[in-house]
Automatic annotation (TrEMBL):
InterPro entries: N-reg_PII, N-reg_PII-like_a/b, N-reg_PII/ATP_PRibTrfase_C, N-reg_PII_CS, N-reg_PII_urydylation_site. Keywords: Nitrogen fixation, Nucleotide-binding, Phosphoprotein, Transcription, Transcription regulation. One of its GO terms (cellular component) is cytosol. PANTHER family: NITROGEN REGULATORY PROTEIN P-II, NITROGEN REGULATORY PROTEIN P-II HOMOLOG. One of its GO terms (molecular function) is enzyme regulator activity. One of its GO terms (biological process) is regulation of nitrogen utilization. The lineage of its organism: Bacteria, Pseudomonadati, Pseudomonadota, Alphaproteobacteria, Hyphomicrobiales. SMART domains: P-II. Homotrimer. The keyword Phosphoprotein applies. This is Nitrogen regulatory protein P-II. The modification O-UMP-tyrosine is found at Y51. Belongs to the P(II) protein family.
Length: 112
């Protein structure tokens, strides 16, 4: 099993969710996060004053998938989240040693 973690632009969430649903992945966790990468934030003007926004709003999506769906999940997220502009995000893939569904006690891939 793998956990696929993606940091994306907030307005791309629905497209990413639909792309994952199309390949058979139905559950995901979304967290609102702030951060920056190569773009190092930006400046905004509020009431005539310019100020720096160092941490940009992003969404972190986490989905645990069977190992055989990892590549499809990564490809689906990358295609759906891409705008071609700086700040599109990143995808990380980590190993998952164990998963347990609390309600039924099912373990590992049956718990997904």
């Amino acid at each position: 099993m793998k956990i696929v973690m993606a940091i994306i632009k907030p307005f791309k969430l629905e497209e990413v969710r639909e792309a994952l649903t199309e390949i058979g992945i139905h559950g995901l966790t979304v967290t609102e996060v702030k951060g920056y990468g190569r773009q190092k934030g930006h400046t905004e003007i509020y009431r005539g004053a310019e100020y720096a926004v160092n941490f940009l709003p992003k969404l972190k999506i986490e989905v645990v998938v069977p190992s055989d769906l990892e590549a499809k999940a990564v490809d689906a997220i990358a295609a759906a989240a891409k705008t071609g502009q700086i700040g599109d995000g990143k995808i990380f893939v980590l190993n998952v040693d164990k998963a347990v569904r609390i309600r039924t006690g099912e373990a590992d891939e049956q718990a997904l």
